[in-house]
Design brief:
Layout: H1 3-10, H2 19-51, E1 53-67, E2 77-87, E3 90-95, E4 109-115, E5 122-123, H3 135-155
Amino acid sequence: MNLVSVLLISARPTGSFQGSMTLFLVLFSFIAFALIGFGIILFQKRKAWLAHSKMTYGKIVEISRRYARDDHSGRFPIYFPIVSYYVNGSEFRREADKGLAKNCEVGQEVPVRYLTDNPYEASLNETSIPVLNPTVFFVLGLLMLISSIALSFLHK
């Protein structure tokens, strides 16, 4: 007998194993609680960022135009405005994280939300926050938790 046949024979199940569903449900629940916990951490970070930030207005000083990789003809540019804003007499500049499909104008006023401790860390919108949105983690975690609970009742 060669080594491959010995390994194949030794890996063959000899009886029914009942622990696989329980192990799967425990693992599924653990991942669900981890996702919900990560969502809570992100929610707290967003809340702290909002609590330590202030609003001001800046002006668009420059507009960077870029194209998507699949736009070979260059017909659909994406505009990234660069905004200048002042905090305590010092000028700061910030480029938009997300591009705009419509053209902005140089000199246009834009709301800027910045951290009071570090004005370089800013967002060019009243409602946008540079921390990940926890909603996806909450929804995925709750769906996984509900499905593991439902599967545990169906398994019994």
